[in-house]
Amino acid sequence: MLKLRTIRSRMTITYVLLVAAVMILTGLFVLNKLENYHLAMEKENLERAGGLLVPHVATYLHEGAGPQRLNAAAAQFAQQVNARVIVVDNNHVVLGDSRAGELVGTSLARFEVEEALKGRTGQSIQYSTLSRQQVLQVAIPLIDQDGQQGALFFATSLNPLYGMLAAVRHFFIFATLVAMALTAALGGLFAHHLGGPIKELTAAARRMAAGHFEQKIPVTSRDEIGELADQFNVMSSSLKEMKKRLTRFVADVSHELRTPLASIHVCLQSLQHYDMKPEERQEFLQDINQETQRLIYLVEDLLELTRREEVADKREHVALGKLIEEVLSTSIPRATRKELKLFKELPDDLPHFNISPEAFKRVLFNVLDNAIKFTPAGGWLKVSAAKGQENVCITVQDTGHGIPEEELPLIFERFYRVDQARSRDLGGSGLGLAICKEIMELYGGTITVESQEEKGSTFYLAFPLRHAVAEEQLKNVTSGYNIERENPPARASIP
Ligand SMILES: Nc1ncnc2c1ncn2[C@@H]1O[C@H](COP(=O)(O)OP(=O)(O)O)[C@@H](O)[C@H]1O
Ligand SMILES: [Mg+2]
Ligand 2 centre and the CA of 379: distance in Å? Predict the structure, then answer.
């Protein structure tokens, strides 16, 4: 059963109709041209032949020949040109008739004869009901040196011509039917080849919509459909990967939430069920407070993670130097509290960038926050910046615990902490550097690290200069920092 809604049937029907239309139009054109050409030929032949007969008939008339001689001459000529030949005088009276003198003596008052008697060629095509055929009639003037003597009338059957045209028509009809059948077969085959993979893609997409992302479509051709199947497979792989990452992320988040929640739960249970001295109670409440704070940090970081693209999109023309100064000024109190020395080395000619000031401050704040967190009291930190050939590099150096070499690539992963317990105690969620890396990548930049255990670490933030703003574009630059703007969350280390 042919379903009209399928591409296959639509394509096949379109092809078949197209072929039929082309064949029919060609057929009509060819038949028309053939008919016109042959009619013109027939008429011209009769006219030319008649022209040859005129002097003979004129001579007979001159000699005063009777109907019998004229009939015989007409009959002889009629055989040669395959037409009935009639001789009429100037009064339409038939003087001779090739068909055994049938009309001799009668008046042949026909339109064509009338034309011929006026000196012109008269012609017409008529359907003869008597002989049931189309007939071509031509009359030419019969003129000799004494002037017009009458007219010669010819009537010839068009049966052979129309017979030939009918044969051509039949051939066209047959050819059209064969062409339509072939087109239907070939079109159907082609559409089947096209429709097969599409059906397969549809089925796979349906399974994917139902949550089964691991779909693989065999790529059998190199055409557009093959390309579609190829891209479909790529999409399937990335969806599978995304699903895996999402599951892992949810598992990681749940794990991170569970530890402080479990501590809070234990503390609350103890407070509820045991009699305690006020100092002991205070200690438990302190623990609850600390774990709650940890949960708040975690949720804040999670929110930051989901909002990073939105934040990074709020681009402005900002002066990098001023932004760095701003982050430094918010970090100085904490560094001082931890008895850390903070040095800076910032050139005056740092360019302007078209970035989100909030996103930038988050990145630098996170890196600086880590440096402060992981450097023991008495150490020092140094923030410097330099403009290179291709980028501006901001360096944050510390004299802290350092990071084991094998763990260096891992610290940028979500929730990764070198020393789980210590980092957690310092209030870290393990999301800071992951957020930094993702923001830097959004700006086409990089964040890298060098570290030596027990000596210190150096983080490098490279911003590509191609995103810098040229001097002439700097008409409406914001000051780089706006007091009203939301500050990065300033976290005091948890004691
Ligand atoms: N300056 C640093 N010195 C030593 N270790 C660091 C430093 N910065 C980051 N780390 C390590 O990388 C881990 C990941 O950092 P981050 O993503 O910011 O998480 P956290 O929330 O713990 O700060 C930290 O837990 C720490 O172990
Ligand atoms: Mg951090």
Answer: 18
Instruction: Looking at the CA of residue 398, tell me the nearest atom of ligand 1.
Output: 1
Residue with the nearest Cα to atom 10 of ligand 1?
370
Give the separation between CA 394 and CA 355, rounded to whole angstroms: 15
Bridging pattern class, strands 316-319 and 341-345: unpaired
Instruction: Please provide residue 330's backbone torsions phi and psi, each rounded to the nearest 5 degrees.
Output: -75, -20
From the CA of 44, how far away is ligand 1's center (Å)? Answer: 107
- Averaged over successive runs of 10 residues, the pLDDT of the chain (495 residues) comes to 71 91 95 95 91 91 89 92 93 94 92 93 90 92 90 94 94 95 90 82 91 86 88 93 91 90 94 91 93 90 86 88 94 93 92 92 94 94 94 96 93 88 75 93 95 95 89 55 36 37
Residue 188's contacts (CB-CB under 8 Å, 6 or more residues apart) are 8, 12
Locate the ligand 1 atom nearest the alpha carbon of residue 402 and give its number. 4
Query: Ligand 2 is a single-atom ion; what residues have CB below 5 A from it?
Result: 370, 432
| HEC assignment per residue over 268-318 | HHHHHHCCCCHHHHHHHHHHHHHHHHHHHHHHHHHHHHHHHHHHHHCCEEE
The number of the ligand 1 atom at minimal distance from the alpha carbon of 459 is 1
Say what the pTM is. 0.60
Q: What is the dihedral of CA 292, 294, 300, 301, to 10 degrees?
A: -160
Contact 331, 369 (CB under 8 A): yes
Which domains does the chain show, CATH number per domain? 7-163 (3.30.450.20), 314-476 (3.30.565.10)
